[in-house]
Structure to design on (851 residues):
């Protein structure tokens, strides 16, 4: 080889990219050629810098455990085998429907009995009901919360009541602990309703059933249809609004809600029908004694079938934070800004396809939701012997009506301990937010699944062509001998923003490095909450391409004043400075220089008459200088500071 | 007895919840390291880390090979590139933590200072700046080139293994590697004379 090795050949040799034959040829040449060896050594030095990023990375235990927890559920495809013949499923469905028809015919006469009578039937007489109590306990021990968890179990049914499963949709429409004859009655109800065009034929007992602690006659919440999260970051508070289709039977229904192992605040639970509101009455929310972390609603329904409901409650454990990415155009006059939000979920509950809304602003709450969630009794210890029997009693008749969605207005023993007052305040804060617009609601477009223990980054907004002003600042007393770069813009319509306030967060700014869209990092800063129409100035850190070098050229003292004893009582100090400014950027820049004089008594004069300053404060002057691309400029000034009795002189001068 | 990767996947598919945990522990550090170098941000890397192992969980029954590493990195690469595509800016996210030094990075710097008392502040500053330059140089590489370089150089996979991860030929891997190195040769700082 009579020539020197190219860089390509050296790289191929160093990283074994060439064939073995070629590598040995290059090695032979290197032995003989000192110049190529030197070239290789330089390249090796270059690539050695890659090792600076070779630090050991450790996945934290939290991260690992969150991953493991997330996938801890059994692999679903192992539960349902799609390889099974289709006819097998069809045959099973036919058998189930046939059995139901047979049972309904056998018990047709018995089915004429009205619903409430079934409710009143003593538990002990019904072996079926007992078995269902046991099943419910199994669910208690296994599921974190019946709400929202039963849907996940659609493929892994815990209940043996497969005949209660909707054969077409695969979701549970009803039933946990449901009385056998009640099932049959529901079926007959449906037939009856069809026969008479939906008219109600039977009278519902006005007497509410008293069975809050038993597990019979329970309706379990089915899959969520919609869920909306409103996250109040500052208070570790999230308002959850869920829409679910409940299948009610005509008469009295118990609906059970469990919050075990979640951070849901049970005192905030609310239930409201979204249809047939005049025919559905939510009478009570009961927290049965001795049963932990569950509540039961008593619902009186004049209709039978599916009804959409909205369930609302507060939970803690959900949080969000904002961060931004700005990309400046090549001329640095405009910027593209993208806002992101990272939502974290440690609430103990998965939220699928949730509409996410974020609250910007502070909320004052009296209780920490997480603490409320962990209480054994949602409202403290039961009131024994109280007017209404304490927790678990069936006497509470607070009606849930518009205007007071949480609970009723009746005088009640719970009012006495002030808990309801506090709840009222919690609820009113929500109203306050919407009514007085003291907080800003930030909605994330579309829906997102936010699983427990997972974080998710969401794009919150994107704005193009935001006019920005680049400014360089030099202030030795604040930042030392370095120039700091700032980018300023306003959150208003003129800057293609101003639709919403911008929440506080971290912003990173990039520059368009070339026409192909390559970017280079400019700097980052933390921004505070930017209201609409407010300006913001981002400190992007030191600017290495703009240098400011002040040099003291001359110093002298003069105009000494003596007292009668010959002591010095006043004098002037005269300093002459040259400030050498270098702009090595390809763009013209504006530079703001702040100089301090250590006293309030000073007079400043620039050599260049075109430069003027403004008094920033008593001891500081501030002036601006424009520099062309790749240019240097030296600015000279003289400052006289007055001391002792000479301070009076400056007052006279300024006059 | 040491469980093989395949036996762990098998156990996971059978519903053994501890098997998956062992897999995550076994490969968590290297996958996280890979994703950090790919994305330039630990925070984003942790998001993608969770997504990677979620996909591993979902696609566990598609695993065929005796060793899981290539398969795992292939998933991580897809997740990282998907993530970049989604964020559209991910390939340029800076690793720069000088200005918004979070606790972790601050700890890293102080750890260096404690470990080496002879370290002058100026040297430390120079090294931090060079580190930053290296990060920026890596960030500016196209995603495929960066993946190739990170897998081959930092994760120390052989070129055939990288080819397996990226689903391409060894020749393509070498071409990508060369292009990445050629670009880096222009952008990397010269660290001669500076203590590492």
């Amino acid at each position: 080889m009579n020539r020197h090795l190219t860089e390509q050949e050296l790289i191929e040799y160093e990283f074994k990219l060439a064939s073995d034959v070629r590598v040995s040829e290059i090695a032979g040449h290197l032995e003989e050629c000192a110049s190529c060896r030197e070239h290789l050594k330089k390249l090796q030095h270059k690539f050695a810098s890659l090792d600076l990023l070779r630090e050991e990375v450790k996945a934290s235990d939290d991260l690992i455990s969150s991953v493991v927890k997330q996938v801890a559920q059994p692999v679903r495809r192992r539960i349902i085998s799609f390889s099974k013949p289709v006819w097998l499923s069809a045959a099973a469905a036919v058998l189930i429907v046939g059995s139901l028809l047979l049972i309904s015919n056998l018990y047709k006469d018995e089915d004429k009995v009205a619903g409430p009578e079934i409710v009143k039937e003593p538990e002990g007489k019904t072996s079926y009901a007992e078995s269902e109590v046991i099943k419910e306990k199994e669910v208690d021990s296994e599921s974190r919360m019946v709400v929202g968890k039963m849907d996940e179990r659609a493929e892994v049914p815990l209940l043996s009541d497969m005949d209660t499963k909707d054969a077409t949709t695969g979701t549970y429409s009803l039933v946990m602990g449901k009385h056998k004859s009640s099932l049959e009655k529901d079926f007959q109800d449906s037939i009856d309703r069809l026969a008479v065009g939906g008219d109600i034929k039977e009278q519902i007992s006005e007497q509410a059933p008293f069975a809050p602690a038993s597990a019979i006659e329970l309706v379990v919440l089915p899959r969520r249809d919609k869920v909306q999260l409103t996250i109040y970051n500052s208070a570790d508070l999230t308002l959850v609004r869920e829409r679910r289709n409940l299948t009610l039977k005509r008469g009295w229904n118990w609906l059970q809600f469990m919050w075990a192992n979640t951070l849901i605040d049970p005192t905030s639970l609310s239930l409201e029908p979204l249809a047939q509101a005049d025919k559905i009455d939510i009478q009570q929310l009961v927290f049965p004694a001795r049963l932990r972390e569950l509540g039961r609603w008593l619902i009186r329904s004049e209709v039978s079938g599916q009804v959409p409901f909205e369930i609302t409650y507060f939970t803690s454990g959900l949080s969000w934070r904002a961060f931004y990415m700005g990309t400046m155009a090549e001329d640095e006059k405009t910027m593209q800004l993208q806002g992101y939000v990272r939502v974290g979920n440690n609430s103990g509950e998965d939220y699928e396809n949730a509409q996410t809304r974020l609250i910007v602003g502070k909320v004052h709450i009296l209780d920490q939701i997480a603490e409320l969630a962990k209480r054994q009794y949602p409202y403290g210890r039961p009131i024994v012997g109280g007017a209404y029997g304490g927790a678990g009693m069936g006497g509470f008749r607070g009606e849930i009506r518009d205007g007071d969605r949480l609970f009723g207005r009746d005088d009640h023993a719970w009012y006495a301990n002030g808990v309801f007052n506090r709840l009222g305040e919690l609820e009113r804060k929500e109203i306050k937010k919407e009514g007085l617009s003291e907080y800003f609601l930030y909605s994330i477009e579309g829906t997102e699944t936010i699983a427990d223990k997972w974080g998710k980054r969401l794009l919150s907004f994107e704005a193009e062509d935001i006019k920005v002003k680049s400014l360089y600042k030099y202030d030795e007393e604040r930042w030392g001998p370095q120039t700091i770069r700032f980018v300023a813009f306003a959150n208003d319509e003129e800057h293609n923003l101003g639709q919403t306030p911008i929440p506080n967060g971290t912003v990173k700014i990039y520059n368009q490095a070339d026409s192909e869209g390559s970017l280079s990092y400019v700097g980052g800063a933390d921004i505070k909450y930017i209201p609409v129409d407010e300006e913001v100035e981002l400190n992007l850190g030191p600017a290495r391409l703009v240098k400011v070098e002040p040099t003291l050229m001359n110093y002298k003292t003069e105009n000494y004043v003596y007292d009668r004893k010959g002591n010095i009582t006043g004098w002037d100090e005269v300093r002459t400075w040259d400030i050498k400014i270098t702009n090595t950027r390809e763009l013209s820049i504006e530079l703001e220089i702040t100089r301090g004089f250590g006293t309030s008594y000073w007079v400043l004069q620039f050599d260049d008459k075109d430069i003027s300053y403004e008094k920033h404060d008593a001891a500081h002057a501030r002036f601006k200088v424009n520099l062309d691309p790749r240019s240097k400029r030296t600015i000279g000034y003289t400052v006289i500071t007055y001391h002792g009795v000479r301070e009076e002189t400056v007052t006279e001068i300024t006059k | 007895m040491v469980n093989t990767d395949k036996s762990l996947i098998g156990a996971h598919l059978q519903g053994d919840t501890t098997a998956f945990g062992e897999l995550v522990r076994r490969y968590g550090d290297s996958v996280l390291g890979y994703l950090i170098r790919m994305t330039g941000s630990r925070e984003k890397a942790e998001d993608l880390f969770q997504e990677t192992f979620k996909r591993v969980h979902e696609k566990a029954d598609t695993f065929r090979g005796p060793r899981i590493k290539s398969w795992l990195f292939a998933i991580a690469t897809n997740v990282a590139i998907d993530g970049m595509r989604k964020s559209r800016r991910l390939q340029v996210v800076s690793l720069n933590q000088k200005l918004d030094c979070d606790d972790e990075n601050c700890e890293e710097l102080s750890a260096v200072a404690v470990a080496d008392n002879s370290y002058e502040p100026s040297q430390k500053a120079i090294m931090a700046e060079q580190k930053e330059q290296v990060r920026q140089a890596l960030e500016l590489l196209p995603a495929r080139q960066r993946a190739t370089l990170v897998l081959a150089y930092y994760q120390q996979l052989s070129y055939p293994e990288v080819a397996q991860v990226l689903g391409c030929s060894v020749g393509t891997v070498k071409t990508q590697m060369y292009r990445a190195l050629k670009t880096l040769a222009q952008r990397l700082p010269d660290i001669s004379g500076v203590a590492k």
Observations:
- Residues 17-39 of chain B form the longest helix (23 residues).
